[in-house]
Amino acid sequence: MSAGDDGRRAALIRAVCAEPDDDGVRLILADWLEDHGEPERAAFIRAQLEEAAVFRADPLLAQNPHAYTRHAGLLRLVHRPADAWSPSRRGGGFLWEDWLGSLPHYGVEVEPPHQRGPAWSGGFPRRAAMPFGVLVARAPAVFALLPLRSVTLRDVFVVRQTDHGYGLAVRRGERPPRLLVRELSPRKPWRTREEGEDAVSAACVRYGRRRAGLFGG
Fold first, then answer.
1. N or C of the chain: less Cβ packing under 10 Å?
2. Which residues pair with 183 in a beta bridge?
3. How high is the pLDDT of residue 58?
4. pTM of whole model > 0.70?
5. Which run of H or of E encompasses 29?
6. Whether residue 95 sits in one domain with residue 15
């Protein structure tokens, strides 16, 4: 792939991240990927979009774990060792891991695609976990590559602090940057741990999108 192709690919993926609810942008990316040597990823994007549309039209179908056989077949494909059949593979492991670029090297963890569950949609992961230092240092790269809807910080925790609710705690010896603390700190204690975790995740996504210059979506 030429430098120009690399730039166009990155721009299309960034467009998906900027407009995560726009299926049309993902289909444009899928068409480009198919024309430029990545037919497996193109097929996976289309299959996940198609599956979502099928299940929106027939919610009962989604209760059958084997209902959507095309998606299941593509999942078997992307979980195969990619270096055994893909000449463009840069290293060992599975094809879907190659779609993450260098992010795993920096400590960004993403669940593998599954046939069911919210981890991936439209051909991209929806959630990731990372240390807060990685979020601060790598947010532009992470959020320009992954249209994340949920972020878990490995070293920031929601804990009961008073009888009235929950607040933030960090791993001993760690000091998160002030900018991130301001973004995450609750104006009042959260009533439950789940409420706090959801609020921290949403704050991380807002922070990451802003750092990446993605103001829509």
1. N
2. none
3. 78
4. yes
5. helix 23-35
6. yes
